[in-house]
Amino acid sequence: MPLVLEQVSYTYRSHEGNVEALKEISLQLREGGFLGIIGHTGSGKSTLLQLMCGLFSPTAGRILLDGADIALKQTRRRLHTEVGMAFQYPEHQLFAPTVAQDVGFSARNAGMDSEEVEQRVRRALKLVGLDYERFATLSPFDLSGGEKRRVALAGVIATEPRVLILDEPTAGLDPAGRLGMLATIERFCQLGMSIVMVSHDMDDIARFAQEVLVLRDGSCVMQGHPSEVFSHTDELRAINLGVPKSEEYAASLRKSGLPLPQGILTLNALADAIVAAVRPEQGADHGKGDCRADGRADCRADGRADGRADGREAARGL
Description:
Layout: E1 3-14, E2 17-29, E3 34-39, H1 45-52, E4 60-65, E5 68-69, H2 73-82, E6 83-86, H3 99-109, H4 114-127, H5 132-135, H6 145-157, E7 163-167, H7 175-190, E8 194-198, H8 202-208, E9 211-216, E10 219-224, H9 226-229, H10 233-238, H11 245-255, H12 267-278, H13 280-286, H14 311-316
Helix pairs in contact: 3-4, 3-6, 4-6, 6-7, 12-13
């Protein structure tokens, strides 16, 4: 597995003394997996991401990359090339005079020749939905907010990392920018990338994640498949977290007496469940066209675009 955390804790010093930011976190990110992380502000989400990409070192426990401890110098060097992170509001880090120069910076910094850098810039821009011929020579500062965000993300994936870490990728975007970013994430899914994403939007987590980790005050309070985690509506609300709109509507209908299953993650799945509850025979036929019971987009490793394990090679051909 690309990344494994074993009982990882992180403590830092403040003017008030030692602060335990994370407490004995364990998780596994498998090849092609998608892990969603949720929690209220200050729960430790960003600290966890920065530990996973090697910016911080755990004060207890281990982080393993392909079974090797990232505390080892050689493994940490690999981590910096194989794990890419897009921070919250990554467009604030744009600096180069043109889009192509900005996207290609990390590849050039890694010592690649100009031809390889250009090919990587072309592939990265295509993956984030931006045409090279149109955008390469433009100033990144003249683009829309959503385009700037995707240019910044292209700079991260130009090094072609195995694991991509996204911290609130849709935060602050207008509706058009948000749709563009979600389409970009879906393309990454279809190519079989291993992804870790923090988001306050439960619908986005439900749409993409195979596993959800819930943090509260630095501790993991819940972990599992999205349908399982989001079935605990009351527990999540007690720690100031929501659930996907579909599950919220379903909870209201259950209180009205409609027998709906727990963990409904999409509006399409909710519609199927309502039909099945009202007209059981019709509902059985109605759901036959869905790719899975919860009606999710077919973009996960367990149902992603043919489940390609060779998606990264396909990306090279773009």
